[in-house]
Each structure stands twice: as C-alpha cells, then as structure tokens.
Amino acid sequence: MDLEKMLNSSPYHRWLGLQMELVGENEVHIKMPYRQEFAGSDEGINIHGGIISSLIDIAACFAMMNATKRDTPNLNLEVHYTRMAAAGDELIAIARTLKAGRTLGIADVEVKNQDGKLIAAGRSLLSTAAPERKTLTKK
Amino acid sequence: MDLEKMLNSSPYHRWLGLQMELVGENEVHIKMPYRQEFAGSDEGINIHGGIISSLIDIAACFAMMNATKRDTPNLNLEVHYTRMAAAGDELIAIARTLKAGRTLGIADVEVKNQDGKLIAAGRSLLSTAAPERKTLTKK
Amino acid sequence: MDLEKMLNSSPYHRWLGLQMELVGENEVHIKMPYRQEFAGSDEGINIHGGIISSLIDIAACFAMMNATKRDTPNLNLEVHYTRMAAAGDELIAIARTLKAGRTLGIADVEVKNQDGKLIAAGRSLLSTAAPERKTLTKK
Amino acid sequence: MDLEKMLNSSPYHRWLGLQMELVGENEVHIKMPYRQEFAGSDEGINIHGGIISSLIDIAACFAMMNATKRDTPNLNLEVHYTRMAAAGDELIAIARTLKAGRTLGIADVEVKNQDGKLIAAGRSLLSTAAPERKTLTKK
User: Fold this and answer.
1) Chain A residues closer than 8 Å to C125 by CB
2) Closest residue by Cα to residue B57 from A50, A1, C132, A95
3) Class of domain C3-127
C-alpha cells in the first residue's frame, strides 16, 4: 500500500478531496481544492479554520509515515492561523519531519494558498512506536 | 442573532451537524452526532483527529463570542488527543474562557464521548479586538 | 525520597528558590518568592517570561511524578502569558494532571500572583513510561 | 540602543550568560555557555528544561524585535524537547520570524548543542503592536 492509496482510504480525506502532490525524501505535499462546505459562514468569504487544522493534522501524519514506514498517530497539534484563506482558494500543505525517533516524531507543516501566501503554520507530535509496515512503500 | 443561529450559519458547521446544547455564564456545550464521513479509515473504527480539532476550534470560538459579544477569530489552536474516539460516538465539546481581555482571550475545551471519557483537550488564543455586536444576545 | 526533597535536589530549582506548598491527591502547589535576577529588564518592573515558563515546566513535572510515582520528563510545553508579573511578586504554580496514562500524561498549570491574579497558563505532555520509583512516596 | 545591548540589559539574561552571536536579515543566533546552576539534578548530567525554554522565549523575542524594530512581548510559547542537553553543553538558539505582521508575529527557534544536534524546537506568538523604537538599530 502506498501513501497515495492510504490518503484515499479515509472517508474524511475523500470528503476533503485531498490529493497527494509530492512524496519526497523528507517532505510531502498535499493539495486541497475548494468545496462549498469549507466555507466558514454563509457569506462564504473564507475557509473555516477547522478545515485548515484538519489539513495540517493529516499532512503531519503523512510526512511521518513516509519517514518511518509506520502508522504514526498524532498525539498533539499546534496551529497558528496567519492569514484568512478565501473561499475558492486551493490550499497546499507542505509537511516535513523535524524529528523521527524510535517512539516519538515531530512534523512541521506550512499551509499556503495558490499564490504562495502562508495561511497557517502547524506542528505535531506523533507516536512512532508502532511496528514497521512491510507494505508501506514510497510512491 | 443568537449563538445557536450563528452556529448554524456556517456551511462547515452544518456539515458537521453541530448542536448547541448549553450556553452558560462562562461555558458553552456543543454536541456532534456521528456521521460516516467522520471515519478516519475505511475500516471505520475511529473518528478522524481533524474532526475533533475542528470541534475544538469551533467550541473555543463560541465560548469567547459568548463571553465578549464580539466576533472572536481563533489565532492559534493547541490540541492534545488523549483517547481514540470510536466510530459512532457522539461527542460533546465543553468550552470555557480562561481569559477574555480587551484584545486577546484564551479558551479551554474538553471533548468527551457519550460515556464522559476525555477524547481530547484543546486551548485556543483568540482575538477579542473586534467591535461589540449589538445584536449578539445570549440564547 | 519525597517530592519536597526531589524539588530541592536540582541546582536550578534551588536557584529559583522553589518551595513545595501542597502535595494533594491530584494537585501540587509550588511557591516561588522573588529574587532580583528574575527581572526582565534593568528597570526591574516585571518578572521575565523565561522564569515563568520554567516554573510551569517544573510544576507540571511534579504533578505528574506525584500521580505516577515515576520520573516523568517533559516532552513538550505550551505557555500562554496572560498578565505581566511585577518585580517583587511571589508566584504560585498550581498543577494538576489531566491524564496520567501508561506512556504519556498531560498536566495543566496555572501561575498566579499573591493576589490570585492569573499570570500564565501552561500545559505539558510528559513521558510516563519510566519504571516506578519504589522510594517515591507522598509528602 | 542595539540588540546586543538590549540582550545585556536584563538581569535574567546576564545570569544566563547570553551572548549575541549573529544578527542577520531574518535571523538571530544567541549562545549560552554552561553554568553549574543550569543542572537539572545534583547528579548534574543534564541541562534543565526550564533553562532551554527560557532561551527559546528570549531568542524568539529578539528575532521579532530585530524584524520589527519594536518591543515585542511574547504572548505564548510552544516548546518540544527533542534530546537531552548534557551538563557542560554550550547551546545556541537560532531564531527566525515566520510572520511579522502589524499586530502579531510568529518566531521559530531551534536550540542546538555544540555538535549541531537539535535539543529543542520552539515557536512563539508575539505582540508587534507597540510603537516603533527610533533608537533600535541593527548591530
């Protein structure tokens, strides 16, 4: 099973419409096109913060799974919202591992819009203690 | 406009199916019944962490709006996942303000399942600098 | 070895002048009288944030050691500064465990001044995986 | 007044023995040689986490002051401890601004030992709303 298949094996990921854009040595990029239910309000001017925090949670996890070839559940999540994402924006999450230890890992995520503007910065601590997945291969 | 109407005025909130259970002096309770798209995986055994972080983001914001009668956008979000929420669980977020200052506020949120077990604990810093909403009244 | 002795067995704790005020069922209180080196500036009007974050780190750890009878190193630390502590203030940290699991625990800390005003709120994730200390007894 | 003078104008900074190593376009480096009171325990094998969180708090603030020419008090602080710092280690904090807005800024800090190993990673949200210091010039 590769990371792209794993990304699509979750009902919530599919609802979010996530697309694996890049799986690199120490980096994954996940793209999220807009859908109307992402709107924070009926005026529909911005993307809801919860959608952005979800994207960060997921990107951090996939960066760590890529680095460790393990299932790596998020233990905590820290998000700073830096700029409102406009309704209609296509967002991309760029996630890298800062540490990938035997029991714990840390991943950093930047969420940017299609113009490269920083929308949010996130960090997550993840458990890396699960046994290695033999079938988890790079894209 | 009351908090309950505001909760229902967001497409994402409606998709999440959020219900305002209680608006108290320094406390709001928001209930979130299960829907299938919340599942973290196709095996469908747990609720996705992004759903839980969304619930925390929203509950923190509503506790602060209730305390300040202002629109109070979240600036940051810190979430600790303490126990896996099972698919099918009905979750409740209990949010309280720790500080509600002139420019900044802090809200604490506990997410519990129907058995009262702690699923996640969150904290959010919010901006309280917007002008007061004359029409924001308690439920 | 009791918690009070442990508190005094660290050179940094002694420099900070920490005093164990209370060891309760799920709560420890640690007092920190003022010393001149705590000043954030030569004008000497406030206590440095690093002193306050140190107090939070320590109080979280002692609450978790009390709950688990183990050495529980801090893995992360989140601090929100809510009010400037004035030079001369005697601060108290009130720490409680939110979770004390087999491998991880979470502790919450409030730092207050002598008037009961909230100076900072902190949360820490700690490792609880170390073997139990047979000699760690309650005060 | 330059940043180096400001670093030395705080009693707590002087006690920590902080040295400004580099003030760059978007980066400050602050060095902290060891002193015995930094020890976490009388066995003296590690540097106390509170010392490291203090260094992160300070480095974040100086990176933001450098970027904004303003006094920029820390509002919050998030620290992940990644590796024990050994007693005797000389630590260096490398701080960069991720955002420097009109009212808020975010700074990232990495603390490394003399071998370049990552000891801790921190992030801080700071207020940037104070008036500009006319006399705050680059080193």
Assistant:
1) 75-76, 125
2) A50
3) alpha beta
